[in-house]
Amino acid sequence: MHITRLYRITGIFAIILPLLSAALFMTLQTVFDFPGILREPVGVALSLFAQNQDAIIPAYYLFAWTGILFIPLVILLHQIMEQKTSVVLNIATVLGIIAGVVQFLGFIRWPFMIPSLAQAYIDPAAANSMKEAISVTYNAFNLYAGGAIGEHLGYVFQSGWGIMFATVLLNLRFGPRLLAWFGILMSVALFISGYEQLIPSQAEALASLNLVAVIGWQVWLLVMGVVLLKRPTVQSPLSYSN
User: Fold this and answer.
1) What DSSP line would sit under 169-181, residue for residue?
2) pLDDT at 59 over 90
3) What is the pTM of this model?
4) Cβ–Cβ < 8 Å for 217, 210
């Protein structure tokens, strides 16, 4: 691919993906009180889900696919840097691909599994034993698919990619140094916040840190996209040194 076209496509991708994620986040926040709803009792969460599922289901479905869409962005950024490829860049790319997959697996339970649980839970004829079984199932999948896979592993691999890729940016002097350092800072914060489920005593503080880290990380991607679009005619990543 011609270097100009590669930079342009990658820049557009890096801008669209965080904007899409932000739009879906705000949609879920409006109709489902996300992410606070994840800490509410099962009855509250499933009742609200059933009430607004026409908006919640497609939003979660698309949110899951943002994880898969992160993979081509990781590969495109690898191609931009491959003129000076390194072990660090190769490992970063592998981590980024894994991050996209596990985030997809974490979110995809919502549009496929939760609707049936919600309908069964709010059914007036549902016995208490049925509601208890649904509660156990809901909580188990939230902890495993959501907490362990989507959040913990997702954030660990995503932050790993961010730290290592930003290190490559620093070494190649690609873009403003502040951009790379900001990426490292947000990635470290994301990594720490991914341990919310494992440190219950600090869950509230880590949840707040996670919100800041996620927003900052998306801003980092967006700014990186703008940097890529500003000079689409460069011939080498080293042309970005500041």
Assistant:
1) HHHHT-S-HHHHH
2) yes
3) 0.90
4) no
